[in-house]
Design a protein that fits this description.
single chain, five-stranded mixed β-sheet, 4 helices, two-stranded antiparallel sheet, alpha+beta
Length: 165
């Protein structure tokens, strides 16, 4: 920004710019399919609606409301403690220590568990036991995204402790 007295040549008045040709060539922009479309406001209801996902089978990594075990986290912990064989690592000769296995699974729109797989590999039967317990569990409450139930990933750490007798 300059002071008025420092400006050597002032811009032309609006009347002179009416007949000015800016360019002689029209050029189309580059179309990018990955640009998100803006949300549309329904003028009648004043509700913002986001475009619905085209693929109904998409599995979400992050959701507004996570899938949850019926009864909440406390009941889930109780289920794991009651049904998981905590001695599996000891029985298979694991050295003393604390081992945290991580199991990933999908909770679908109906709450069914599928695609259960271990993300760690400590061995000694720990991952297999964690997968077995999660697979045999009851249905969950599905995750929610944009007000509708969706398929979503969940990760569950399960810790095994091996102590000397």
């Amino acid at each position: 920004i300059k002071k008025d007295e420092d400006v050597e040549k002032p811009p032309p008045p609006q009347e002179e710019l009416k007949d000015v040709k800016i360019a002689e060539v029209n050029q189309e922009g580059i179309k990018d399919e990955n640009i998100a479309t803006p949300v549309v406001i329904d003028e009648g209801k004043q509700i913002v609606e986001e475009k619905k996902e085209d693929d109904e089978n998409k599995i979400f990594d992050k959701v507004e409301i996570e899938a949850k075990f019926p009864g909440g986290d406390g009941k889930w912990r109780q289920y794991l403690e009651r049904n998981c064989n905590a001695q599996v690592a000891t029985d298979n000769g694991a050295p003393e220590g604390t081992y945290t296995t991580v199991v990933q699974f999908v909770v679908d729109k109906e709450g069914n568990i599928s695609d259960v797989k271990a993300m760690t590999n400590h061995g000694y039967g720990m991952e297999e036991e964690a997968v077995r317990v999660i697979k045999k569990g009851p249905n969950w409450t599905p995750a929610v995204q944009n007000g509708r139930q969706v398929k979503a990933y969940r990760k569950q750490p399960i810790t095994f402790q091996v102590t000397g007798e």
